[in-house]
Amino acid sequence: MNVNKTRQELVSAARKLFGKTGLKNTTMHDIAVESRKGRRTLYTYFKNKNEILDAVIAEEMEYVIKAVEKVVYLDLDPVEKFITYVITRMNTVREVVARNGSLHADFFMDVVRVELVRRKMEKLEVGFIETIFQEGCDSNLFHFEDVKQAAIFGHFVMRGIEVPYIRGIFDEPGKDRDESLRRKTMIILYGLLNSDQIK
User: Fold this and answer.
1) Nearest 5°: phi and psi at 106?
2) Dihedral sign, Cα of residue 162, residue 110, residue 52, residue 21
3) Exposure b/e, 144-171, CB count within 10 A at least 16 = b
4) pTM of the model
5) Superfamily (CATH) of domain 52-197
6) Burial grade of 100 (CB within 10 A; 0-12, 13-18, 19 or more)
7) In the predicted model, is pLDDT for residue 196 greater than 60?
8) Where are the beta strands (DSSP E) in the chain?
9) pLDDT at 103
10) Mean pLDDT of the chain
């Protein structure tokens, strides 16, 4: 028996049920049935529903991280790379939310639990943005007094616009969604680059 494959199948079954019927209405028995693995196998990997919920959230966050990490290694100038990073990140987060039922899925509403898992990924993501910003500084395109602080701020700006983006608040009638986000990303970048001028 492939341990990783079995665990993955259990997590996938739980994700499907959480998105379809909600966390509260899903039992460990339901997950065992959906996965076709049986309760004994399920309890070998997860002690309770909260543990499997943590695994679902962590896997979704990992999916986002893998998507944006690829952007860091693209052969693009730093401005285009940051824009591509933001578009990739926002669209991947939107995909994750859609895959899990809706923005109001029970487990997304458990802010404390989600934040505990996200915190582990946060350092990675700030590091990715810092790498892009440092490339920009090295090529004299960006002028950040503190690259790490700029990366932290850029990360939290993206976090802040996740919900409006997913809900379509940023959409402009008759315009491509990515192109609209591209323009807004330039506003974010311009603000970061000119933040040192604010006294």
Assistant:
1) -45, -45
2) negative
3) beebeebbbbbbeebeebeeebbeeeee
4) 0.81
5) Tetracycline Repressor, domain 2 (1.10.357.10)
6) buried
7) no
8) none
9) 44
10) 84
Residue pLDDT, tens place only, 123-178 = 899 999 999 999 999 999 888 889 999 999 999 888 888 878 888 887 778 778 88
CA 36/CA 20 separation, integer angstroms: 17
- Domain limits, CATH 1.10.10.60, in the chain: 1-47
Cα 62 from Cα 45, distance rounded (Å): 19
Instruction: Provide the token pair at 188.
Output: 């974010």
Inter-residue contact 10 to 52 (CB < 8 Å): yes
Q: What are phi and psi of 102, to 5 degrees?
A: -170, 175
> Which residues belong to CATH 1.10.357.10 in the chain?
52-197
Which residue in the block uniquely carries the two structure tokens 């939310």?
Answer: 97
Across 3-12, 102-111, 182-191, the highest mean pLDDT is recorded for 3-12
Angle between helices 147-166 and 78-99 (to 10 degrees): 40
State what percent of residues in the chain have pLDDT above 70: 87
Superfamily of domain 1-47: Homeodomain-like (1.10.10.60)
